[in-house]
Each structure stands twice: as structure tokens, then as C-alpha cells.
Amino acid sequence: MSYELIIASPKVEDFTALDQHQEQTPQSFFGAKPVLHLHSPAAKVVLSQADLQVNKDFAGLGARIDGPDGSVEFSDVDVWVTSRSLLLWPTSGTGLKIPYPTITIHAQQGSAVLLELNLSDDNTADEDLEFIQLRICPTSVTNSATEAAEQVDGAQANGDRAASPVKALYDAISACQELNPDPNADGDDEEDGMGGFDETAPGATGWITSENMGDFMDEEGNLRMPEGATVIGGEEEVNGGVEEQTNGLGAGAGRRRGADEVDARDGVTEDETKWQRTG
């Protein structure tokens, strides 16, 4: 789910303060309260009219003000940056709970933090992905749940009191995104690469070992290519006269040398070899 609608107002007691979390070891990592990294009350959220027409849920962020540039502004939106999700709660209306993997881009843009959200599910094709952009303009921030009612001009996020509110908001979202990586990131690499190839399986790398020798021998003890096996690293090269490469073995392995090869070494006969040595 790209986001959830929330109808209950977040409260300071719902979270663990960041400074308290850093000073003590939690009794349990499961079921513990989310950590409040930053709270920005009475922030401004700006979207485009085109995005708002397609995504009606964002219209619940409160009373709207239409701008001349095609933008829509929502004022008095409380922003809660927690360790599990980003919460947008208006003074009236319905709030939004946004998981961090939904945020594909976040950046500082003047006095705002720009967010791009991917609203599509995991099974959506790349050409059908749906995105929405919004800007959050904080006026004041705090990172202590016990002092969330206190509005401070100048950041207190992550211990940086000298940063501006927009820089503090950006840093807090960055920190929480690192705590919540995209679970599908590794799966994409496997699809593009070797996938579930197991190099530890007997014979998987083309080498004959004591574990898979029986797969490469017939009843008379001759080497053979097991049925259904494939060559790793390229197409079978039979037409080029390199027959030994079709069975996944190195050059010279798994074949018998002819009489001319026994009597000659690298194309030089025995007499020629003696002549070269005595010459």
C-alpha cells in the first residue's frame, strides 16, 4: 500500500522521543513505540491541481488555497517524521500515513522539502507507474516527543540546533528512509542477473568432482555430457571443432588424444624435437 488514511490525530505519547531512544536500550525491538525523529506543526503542503484531481485523498488535508500557477496550498498541516512512517495530519479532515519506500525522491527546494511518491503497487509495469509530487514547507520543528507542543524556530532534529527547519526536515526524512529500505530492491537485481543460480550445487560450475562424477560417466566408464545440462558462459561451440567445450569442461579435458598427438608435441615430431635440442 502506497499510503494509508488516518482518522485519529497523532499524540506525543504515541511515540518515543529520539533523545530518549538514543540514551536507553529498548526492552523489545518488536511492538515498541515508533521513534519521533521530528515534529513540524502548522506546516504548509503544496500540490499541483492536476495531481490533486487524480488523487482525491490528498484533498482531505484541510482547506485549500488555489494559486495562480496551478498549485494548491494546504496550511496548518502537522508533519510527524517517525521511524516507521511519515504522517501528515491537518487541523480538520483526514490525515495520511506514508511508508518510506513510497518516497522515491526527496530533496530540498528553497524553503520546502520536495517529495515524489510512487502510488503504484509492486505488480505495476514501469510504463504504468503513477507518481505524485508535493512540497512541505515547515515553519518550526522539534524532535522531542515530550516537548512536541513547543514550537522552535531553528531545527532541533538529530541534535543540529543550527540547521534551518527545512534542512532539519530533510535530514529527518533521510535518516528514517535509511531505517526503512525498499524490500523489492534486491529482488530486481536477481531478475536482471543470474537469479536463483546456485554455484554450490554439484556440477553447477562445470567442474567434475567426487560428488557429481557419476553424472559425467556412462556404464563403460566413458565421459559423457549429462542429459539436460547446459553450458555456462555462452552457446555450444560444436561447429568450430572445439568439441570439448560443449560438455562444460576445459580444453583437453574429457577426451582422448590421437596417435598424432601422442607422437607430437605442439605440432613438432619427435625427430624435430631431437634436432632442436641438439642443434
UniProtKB/TrEMBL annotation:
It comes from the Eukaryota. Transmembrane segments: none annotated. GO terms for biological process: mRNA cis splicing, via spliceosome; spliceosomal snRNP assembly. InterPro entries: ICln/Lot5/Saf5, PH-like_dom_sf. The keyword Repressor does not apply. The keyword Cytoplasm applies. It is found in: Cytoplasm; Nucleus. Pfam families: Voldacs. Residues 257-279 have a biased composition (Basic and acidic residues). Gene3D superfamilies: Pleckstrin-homology domain (PH domain)/Phosphotyrosine-binding domain (PTB) (2.30.29.30). Keywords: Cytoplasm, Nucleus. Residues 239-248 have a biased composition (Low complexity). One of its GO terms (cellular component) is spliceosomal complex. Residues 178-199, 234-279 are annotated as: Disordered. This is Protein LOT5. It comes from Salinomyces thailandicus.
